[in-house]
Design goal:
Blueprint: H1 2-22, H2 26-30, E1 34-35, E2 45-49, E3 62-65, E4 68-71, E5 84-88, E6 94-103, E7 118-125, E8 141-146, E9 158-160, E10 164-168, E11 171-173, E12 177-178, E13 191-198, E14 202-207, E15 210-220, E16 236-241, E17 246-255, H3 263-274
Protein name: DUF1080 domain-containing protein
Domain 3-keto-alpha-glucoside-1,2-lyase/3-keto-2-hydroxy-glucal hydratase: 32-253
Pfam families: 3keto-disac_hyd
Length: 280
């Protein structure tokens, strides 16, 4: 009898072991990257370029070549402050987005000095359909992407605030741009920037797997003489054209909305996600 019981227990343990080791892990089931850029076309994206109507791709600014989104100005006579943005078709609220980019070539004639090797990932942005024809930037939180000039220090994954403001270390920050603590990335090397966005409670920037900035309470600029503005809990995601050619070879996202109102699960998910250092 004892032998039979032991055999049964052994069989049960073996079956349980098979289930445990054959079942996908929590991370495998719930942390799959969705590719926002399919590597083939821009069918899932909308274009808004200053001085032009929505979805008018002036001078073929945004194009797909070699499996990359390319921002180019070879059909421009001059830049003329025609800042552009490429918007993904759906808004998001809580997520981790990863973008791999590189700057190439020379800045277009007439591009502002500050826009040299300059682009950005706009999060919590306004709907492009609500932008005016001559509006330069969507109201949004800009994760600024910068490249070095080959000699000077210049961080990336900075923060700029077109039409917005935020709270950092308990203080309301109104200045337009704030530098991150990232390294400088010179030349045409691929760089990966990730942004963790949790509604209006937290935004964290990462450059090549290193945390370089975090802040809270993203909000619109205040109106009616108020100090604080309307908190931003979600919005559009877009990529910039700011006068310097840039390539994007990967734009991917993990939607965390299902965990946003479950603090313990969200903390566990974020810990698993950021335990891995993802490089370009």
């Amino acid at each position: 009898m004892k032998t039979q019981i032991n055999n049964v227990l052994f069989a049960l343990a073996f079956i349980i072991g098979l289930i445990v080791f054959s079942t996908p892990t929590f991370a495998q089931k719930n942390m799959k990257w969705k590719q926002l850029f399919n590597g083939k076309d821009l069918n899932d994206w909308q274009i808004k370029i200053r001085h032009h109507e929505l979805n008018e791709n002036y001078a073929n600014t945004f194009r797909v070549n070699d499996g990359q989104i390319q921002v180019r100005y070879d059909e421009y006579d001059a830049f003329n402050e025609q800042f552009g943005h490429l918007f993904y078709k759906e808004p998001y609220s809580s997520y981790l987005i990863g973008v791999e980019y590189r700057f190439v070539g020379d800045q277009v004639k007439g591009g502002p000095g500050w826009a040299y090797r300059n682009s950005g990932i706009m999060v919590h942005g306004q709907d492009p359909a609500t932008m005016t024809k001559d509006q330069d930037f969507p109201n949004s939180i800009e994760v600024q992407l910068l490249g070095g000039n080959g000699k000077d220090q210049r961080s990336t994954a900075n923060l700029c605030t077109p039409g917005t403001q935020y709270v950092k270390d308990g203080k309301l920050i109104k200045q337009h741009c704030t530098n991150s603590t990232s390294k400088t990335f010179h030349g045409d090397q691929w760089t990966r920037v990730e942004v963790l966005v949790i509604k209006d409670s937290l935004i964290v920037h990462y450059a090549n797997g290193e945390e370089v900035m975090r802040y809270t309470k993203p909000q619109l600029d205040p109106i009616n003489d108020k100090t604080e503005g309307e908190l931003l809990t979600g919005g559009s995601i877009s990529l910039q054209s700011e006068s310097h050619p840039v390539d994007f070879r990967k734009v991917e996202i993990i939607d965390l909305e299902k965990y946003a109102d479950k603090p313990k699960k969200l903390k566990k998910v974020i810990k698993k996600l950021m335990a891995q250092k993802r490089l370009p």
